[in-house]
DNA sequence: CTCGCCGATGTGACCGGTCACACTCGCATT
DNA sequence: AATGCGAGTGTGACCGGTCACATCGGCGAG
């Protein structure tokens, strides 16, 4: 039989520390938890022993004792897409400064069994607080499937109703309207929209775009839907590229903008000479595109941090803190310009 | 005082199930762990009760009982950069199919205190197996700081020595050499290289490039270093863009390629007309760039999956399985072409 | 018929913390 | 002098599983 690879004397436990310090385990526990009911002297002694023994409290045992884990578990359907990944990053950061462990559980799809598995997974008290990134159907389904009693919060797109728990979103509508107005102000007759998948007709990007168009009295062209994959956005782009009436496109995110720009390129159309495009999200590379992309910068990391605050409040049974998120904001760069002069017509 | 928001009858425990099924808790435990020493009939009864009570075993209690957690914790210095994020994705996927929980702990920097904190964090047995994404100094430092006894594996860049634990890497050297040869074959006199930060002089991207140059008898220009941020890559690009002797650039990753391409654009140079560029990584959008990027596709997700297998073997005390990773491969697209004819000179 | 063995099941201790509560002081109050 | 009180500390039970070992009934072998 193979030698026990990782055999080793076990890590010191709280009892070892207590014995070495000549106090009870409870006193050590108090020191660990910064209880005020320990004399300064005792505290110092215990601290020294802890240091000497390199003692580290066992998170698992602690969680079992208290009944809840000092941590959060993030449920998401994706970890790579920019919005998801940055939200996750914000969550991780905030959790880390709070001393919380971070777990990740991805939901494969919005199929019922997948949703149930994910919900079951986080229903385990060891999951701690739960944060659902509910930017899509799968996430929303998990959010709905969570037992009422579970301390949870969600990052979500605007317009999706959530009852009974904090759901935080970035107000995209203003910025979307602003982006649309920007294009209109440049002289475009109207603005086309390639939309990301959405669970809500009231989603901010769509709503802001439509509102700005309405307010300007511009025609509202049919929405061109795209998926999360670049390929489908490319297909959508080809449709628009073939239409000579299209001079301005508001893209549901920067990936879509990339694909649309490619489709335009293949159709021999110049950006922004022939067609202006605006993205959404503000991925780090977008400033370095050629042309640099005009886009709406979204503070997903801030959103993530806010969900951590929310779930922490939920865990503590406190009322939800008022959060002020930095609102999405339009960054005008090179991909938008006035339409070609119509004099030639 | 606020009402207890999440008060609720506690989840059923194994004892509840045992009582309801008329068996002992140990028998229930055996059913849960698929022990063969349970009669088919008893097993069925217990299963039914479990279903009826919606019982789910408590991961924390189980971990405490067995002494080790059914999960892996990933240590990384970044979660957004493509290589890191895709590796993480691969890990998550593999862990999920194995029924393992996934934790994430980011190391803020390679400062000693940060490294120690991260190492301490995962030294807790509740962290389970540990996977270190050691693509940079911080990751490598954590890997080195881990106690010998800890079951861990690493995803790492080639050329960095690691002793005592499985360290898996993608062989970038072949592909890097191939990319360089591709450019040379196109007629370029030599190939410049903008490098990602690396902890090793023997790192694959650098080594393959140099080797191919040497073998072809081409001059080896000085390496232009860049950081992980797009900005620094842009600065590096400007230097190269100002040099009219530069006709081909091998970029350390696709982000760098993006920034270099931008710098070239600003300098009035066409890609691939004036300068050819090759990226590294194969980010999903690279196929949709204008021009579409010639790049080396890396299977980071596969790398991540392999580390899970490795840490699992480590955990079980088994010998390391032989892994066959899909090797990086050059994908030729539009950003590479023969240099402009020199006749004009 | 008795023994031994095996499959199936149960029992108590234990993992490493925390909780609720009890206890022991020393000092101020009545 | 008895009482009250609060700060500081210790004790036993417990969280929800698992482990090691004991037990029990039935069956084939000696």
UniProtKB/TrEMBL annotation, chains A, B:
SUPFAM superfamilies per record: lambda repressor-like DNA-binding domains, Periplasmic binding protein-like I
Keywords: DNA-binding, Transcription, Transcription regulation
Keyword Membrane attached: no
InterPro entries: HTH_LacI, LacI/GalR-like_sensor, Lambda_DNA-bd_dom_sf, Peripla_BP_I
Gene3D superfamilies tied to this protein: 3.40.50.2300, lambda repressor-like DNA-binding domains
CDD domains: HTH_LacI, PBP1_LacI
GO molecular function: DNA-binding transcription factor activity; transcription cis-regulatory region binding
Residue intervals of the HTH lacI-type domain: 12-66
Name the UniProt record assigns to this protein: LacI family transcriptional regulator
